Amino acid sequence: MATIVLDNCAVATMDAAGTEYAGGHVVITDGRITAVGAGAAPAADGAHRVDATGCLATPGLVNTHHHLYQWLTRGYVPDGTLFEWLTELYPVWAHVDADLEHAAASAGLAALALSGCTTAMDHHYVFPHEAGDLLAAEIDAARRIGLRFHPTRGSMDLGQKQGGLPPDSVVEDRDAILAASEDAVARYHDPAFDSMFRVAIAPCSPFSATGDLMRDCADLARRLGVRLHTHLAETQDEDQFCLEQFGARPVDYVESLGWLGPDVWLAHCVHLDDSDIGKLARTGTGVAHCPSSNARLGAGIARVPELLAAGAPVGLGVDGAASNESGRLAAELHQAMLAARARSGPQALSARQALHVATMGGARCLGRDAELGSIEAGKLGDVALWRLDGLGHADIADPVCALVFGPPAPLELLLVGGTPVVERDELRTADERAITGELRTAARTLAERAGR
Ligand SMILES: [Zn+2]
User: Fold this and answer.
1) Which residues of the chain fall below pLDDT 70?
2) Which among 325, 362, 296 has a CA at the least distance from the CA of 65?
3) What residues are neighbours of ligand 1 (ion), with CB under 5 Å?
4) How many alpha carbons lie under 13 Å from residue 170 in its C-beta half-sphere?
5) pLDDT above 70: percentage of residues in the chain
6) Residue 231 alpha carbon to ligand 1 centre in Å
7) Do 270 and 299 touch, CB atoms closer than 8 A?
């Protein structure tokens, strides 16, 4: 039996009772948490013991929305709205292939790991012809970095000719999309408790996917027993688009397509009225909150406090790196708290609520709250250990407050199923310098192909 013991650290378990220990321990055996509590850990023969003095243990963070390929196009259209930014980027993204995808996904997943993320998702929706197997490329990258991974088979079938936003060259045929989605689930979806790979089906957005595709995807996902994801209510332009094209606002529109339910989570949901929030909460539909991306594109600030008060599942996301050049999940804890307060006052979102969104909230969005998202005996050994005794945090008495209010904390250790992925801010599973070199080359190749 392989046992790892984190000893003498503060612990924020994020369990239902909000249990915390000022000085405690976490024990992980064969990939699962076997003990958590106050004081020193019980003796365990042959265990690898980590003296975690000065550190805070939290559940590994869960990223609920990303587009990993966008690591190749960071810094493009720095001052555009979502629609302006998309319109300029679609033709660049049309040149992505499997090799470029692998480089981008390795970089994006490395950045997530280095910022405390143990479970990541990806929403890939651009599938150029002859590009190779893009999903296989990103799954290979996730294996390389060692994170739990929820790739989605995204899609677009509403091109400009039919009144959509993307150029016709980057959209696919509906039957081909459905076949490819079913194939992705058959090949890569693992429903096991300790699964490293789960696939969801994810047509891109109301302005790039037809209602027929959205409806067929919902039927397919429910037949296969997998989850559904899309972008929704991100900007006022989208509100306007949905009213003009469908005679309904975004939440009402997707409700009519069978897209509200406990197996659905939606990215952004910035522009919701009270009735929308009630619908999401009543149906258990999740929201992936991406505060930095929403701020970068000037989209607005999601009503997270109201969603939480209503009982809707809310997780945290970095979104694609082309609209959040940082790509660091721990930074979103800080950003989520500040954004909520900028909108609604200092009691809008506490440090603990922000951490809960980033852990259990994300686990709910991905349908994994029985398996991860909190430090409890029986759950998977996905734990982040943050060093809080340095210049950035040492004088803040409350460790959760230090983590969320303070600067990005050094990551002492990141465990996925008990396996170290990061130690002292360095990747243990892959060579960060090699990944950086591959990324630089890939970004240059894509820019050249796109004539930039
Ligand atoms: Zn997105």
Assistant:
1) 1
2) 362
3) 319
4) 26
5) 100
6) 6
7) yes
